[in-house]
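Researcher: Checking consistency across runs. Here is Peptide/nickel transport system permease protein again:
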Amino acid sequence: MTALLRRTAILLVSAFIASIVVFAFLAVLPGDPAQVALGVNATPELLAQTRHAFGLDRPLVTQYFSWLGGVLHGDFGRSYVTGEAIGPQLADRLGVTLWLVGAGMLVALVLAVPFGTLAATWHRRASGAAISGVSQLGVAVPAFLAGILLVQVFAVRLRWLPSGGWTPPDQDAGEFLRGLVLPALSLGLVQGAVLTRYVRSAVLDTLGQDYLRTARSKGLRPYPALLRHGLRNAAVPVVTVLGLQLTTLLIGAVVVERVFVLPGLGSMLLDAVSSRDLLTVQGIVLVLVVLVLLVNYLVDVLYVLIDPRLRVRR
């Protein structure tokens, strides 16, 4: 319990420091949001009124704590460009991104765990070398290129699946799943190839441990011995990589959402950057950073759940 409280405290402090860094970096960027909102022909008087309405004429410390207080209550302010509230848009777009990242990680795990385990147990066979070779090839393929190839095959030529667009699951579950397949595959295939290599390495290391040889000497066959005694120990380093892969999926989703025209955080971020809507960019980046911190927090919790030795030590 003490370790969990300590990790929770570290999470909160890290999130607070991240909010300062995000605000500071965007505050020092060149350009005036009021000028962007009004255009180049705005008069100085109108610019001054707009800066006052945006709160940009206040000290930076006051602006920061005002923004942070609003964020803690779910209020991310209003867009400098459209004037719409940012918080509701973030909530809607975040749901799309989480569906995409969750489905992509599910595809990666479904591929990586069995194929990585087989590549380790068959490492002296040609089939094991073939799995390793295919995974190495998959590592070299960017997610957006995988998405374009999948669209070309399954949407353009075969016409089995839509090439893009988004249908909310509460409107039409069937169309929602059909629209999610190709984006999830484009993310999951690439990350699954990366994760397969780590699973192979972890299982290979486990196969050489004394406790697994002892289990074999007691009469257990190779695969039951690996399932009962090996995979749980092999999962500890894999969970570390899994946390890194989740953060990579969040970043990769920015490009994949653009390829498949999905209204997620990635598309919203690119639109806000192109229109220099700094307050919207600020909110999106903070949400992404907090998601990364939450993933790392959950990885630390999973360590203790998977490995009982960590519970005893703590």
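Researcher: Does this match what you'd expect to see?
Model: One thing to look at in this run: Residues 222-259 form the longest helix (38 residues).
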